[in-house]
Amino acid sequence: MARGTQRYTDEDFESLDGRASRTEQKKAVQRMAALGEQLAQLNKKQIQKLPVDERLIDALLEIQNISAHEARRRQFLRIGKLLRNEDETVILSYLTPQQGAKKQMQLMRWVDRMIDQGDPVINEFSKVFNASERHTLRQHVLRIHRDMKQQVSEEDLAASKLKFVNYVQQVALLSEQG
Q1: H, E, C per residue of the chain
Q2: Is the pLDDT assigned to residue 115 strictly greater than 80?
Q3: Host domain of residue 114
Q4: Is residue 6 over pLDDT 70?
Q5: 73 and 123 co-located in one domain
């Protein structure tokens, strides 16, 4: 017996809207672990001043005493897991001053261009910043376009843009590192 083709409606997709795929979740964990590596490069005083949970500070200080490769890898995964509970914006605001104001302005121009021009600029950005994922960039841009089309509240639109800016900043930090 042949299987019938299933027709999906917009409602089917709306129920999944905003949900990350497993691949996107794994990539996010890897990005958080890489951000943990960047945080671990700060000196002891800077780590202790971080506005984050005490367990994360302890884990970051502990990594400086670990020399075995596999143990460090596991510790960075743990740090990445702890970072998921923290506010991304706060952590990025602590790391981005190392990039400088000029770099921040360049990234904001990239964000504006990607929102305005779409795929050609996304492809160009992906070539320049090798840690980026084209699919994730497109999803952020499409979400912002959808929000503008549906005329959602200013707060919701600003939240979508903030998520996009945070992702672009993470990618820029990780591309410099790698």
Answers
A1: CCCCCCCCCHHHHHHHCCCCCHHHHHHHHHHHHHHHHHHHCCCHHHHHHCCCCHHHHHHHHHHCCCCCHHHHHHHHHHHHHHHCCCCHHHHHHHHHHHCCHHHHHHHHHHHHHHHHHCHHHHHHHHHHCCCCCHHHHHHHHHHHHHHHHCCCCHHHHHHHHHHHHHHHHHHHHHHHHC
A2: yes
A3: 98-177
A4: no
A5: no
